[in-house]
Specification:
Length: 186
């Protein structure tokens, strides 16, 4: 069934109210490249967590799919995910979300309009830890296009996401430990 045939089905059934739900489900159920706005469910040992794919970074260094993982943990899937995606973001990272869905590591559970607070590409921080201390002395910021040196971070800047692309095992370990950028040891 194609997206246009789903639309025709909703029109024929005189049920235009169900069209957004049908379209959301279609966006997730077919093996295809996910689009920004897709929401995935991650099963952790503590419960279900949700992440939204908000941006695709394709310019060099081509980081890929940016996801924002929401802070709430649920015993079962909420009937309405809208409040979840308006919630607090625990972390932002690049993650191969389409491949994870296709391999069954995470489940796509809907497709939503990206909330206004998540539409802007975030500022990331990066740095190389000193081998002797394990701490980063000089940090760099990256806005998706350019990077610049900033030196030591303020308490507020420590909340910026760390630049990197994570695999599923690393994402899961970070979620299960309730990790946040500001609590990172670097």
């Amino acid at each position: 069934m194609t997206i246009s045939s789903l639309r025709a089905f909703a029109l024929a059934a005189n049920d235009l109210a169900s069209w957004p739900i049908l379209e959301r489900n279609y966006q997730c159920r077919h093996r295809q490249r996910l689009k920004p706005g897709a929401v995935v469910e991650v099963k952790t040992s503590g419960g279900l967590m949700y992440a939204m794919f908000t941006h695709r970074h394709e310019a060099p260094p081509r980081m890929g799919s940016l996801i924002r993982v929401f802070d709430s943990v649920h015993a079962q899937r909420p009937a309405d995910l809208a409040p979840v995606i308006r919630g607090t973001v625990q972390l932002s990272t690049f993650f191969p979300v389409t491949q994870a869905v296709n391999k069954g590591l995470v489940e796509c559970v809907g497709h939503f309009k990206i909330p206004a607070a998540l539409r802007e590409f975030p500022l990331f921080r990066s740095g190389t830890p000193d081998p002797e201390t394990g701490k980063v002395k000089d940090w760099w910021f990256w806005d998706g296009t350019r990077s610049w040196k900033v030196g030591p971070l303020t308490t507020q800047q420590r909340k910026l996401p760390l630049l990197g692309a994570w695999n599923f095992a690393y994402l899961l370990s970070r979620l299960e430990s309730r990790w946040r950028p500001e609590t990172d040891a670097w």
